[in-house]
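Take a record.
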Amino acid sequence: MADTLTADSGTADSGTAKSSSTAGTRTARRPADPRRLARRRKRRLAILFVLPALLLLGALVVYPVVFSVGRSLFDADGDRFVGVGNYAAIVHDPATLKAIRNSTIWVVVAPLLLTGLGLMLAVLTEKVRWATAFKLVLFLPMAVSFLAAGIVFRLAYEQDPDRGVLNAVAVGVHDTFDDAAAYPTARIREGQGLTGRAGGPYSTEKGVRTGGSVSLGFVGVAPDAVPAGAKAAAAPAPAADGIAGVVYLDFAPGGAGTPGRVDPGEKGLPGMTVEAVRDGRVAATTTAADDGSFRLTGLADGEYSVRLPAANFAAPYQGVNWLGPALVTPAIIGAYLWVWTGFAMVLIGAGLAAIPRDALEAARMDGAGEGQIFRRITVPLLAPVLTVVFVTLVINVMKVFDLVYIIAPGPVQEEANVLATRMWLVSFGGGNDQGLGSALSVVLLLLVVPAMVFNIRRFRRSGA
């Protein structure tokens, strides 16, 4: 009886076990949640699409950054570990400190000017009938590469007025209000009775008494530089109460003639200013005629020195030395403004278009002037856009390289360097010190990152 119960109990346990196994099998084979599978599929698909970009980002951004940080801790050859030695060298290198100074000027000046210009142009274009065409013209420089823009402005800033358009304009304006010297290349012939330094003034070596005459010969004047109205040189008859003479080009065609004497074929130098000087004071002044003759009259009896002032021989005005040490950085900033003004104008113009017009109309109805509306309504409402534009330009200015490298001539390259150009020159432009160059690149990165983080946060807040 006990055996039977035990057998029955075993059979029951076996049945229960089978039942439990079957239930477990049914539970294990229950299909997964479709939504969870869909999320997994989407995640895998997203990773598949993002993976090439991540690999490219890692190869072009992450790896170079990590490598530069490591390389900055070694010497120029990369063999000896120097720690922060390269970073210490930055603050002791005069050329690098000058690049930091120039970068500071760029960061302070360029974004402020661009933001101000963009705001002004964006407001003005709202009142222009051909606003679209105007914006297109101002935005066109953005389509030009920095290389091309640098070449254009390098030519525009040329010192020679025949090549540099800016100096051509400057010389034209200057010569409109100030007469150029008639004979800037003229010089005296040695041993012919005149003395003076190059460029004048020139005076007679011996005094000339009233009633006497003098011949003043010059060389160094090209035939095509002689005024078209110049006639054959002729000495006038002496005057009893003055001094007569002739100023002429002491060079006859073909090389004939005697130096110091007026020969046939030699032309006078009209327009030359001549003075009679006695005891350091100018007693009389006159201007040479077309044949070079002159008369200094009304002189008291005595001996005078005949002088030709330096104004006759002053070098012509050549314009502004745009690419000299003093102006090279402002000149390059000017080129940068030309390229980026359209960018600032378009972004600020888009923000201006989003301003609610009822606020502006309400202010006008309350009697506010356009200046008050601009200061108290337009600018405060545009503050987020102006901030984004300013910070974006700061980031871009910190990395400026092309314009500085192309526009600045070799002799003043060091005066125009910014951190980016200094980094390149130290590493690859002859310095061959990639340890110091890597340290400069890390410093530049550390300066750019805060501005980038600030801009990203602004974008996220505006998107929220």
The radius of gyration is 41 Å.
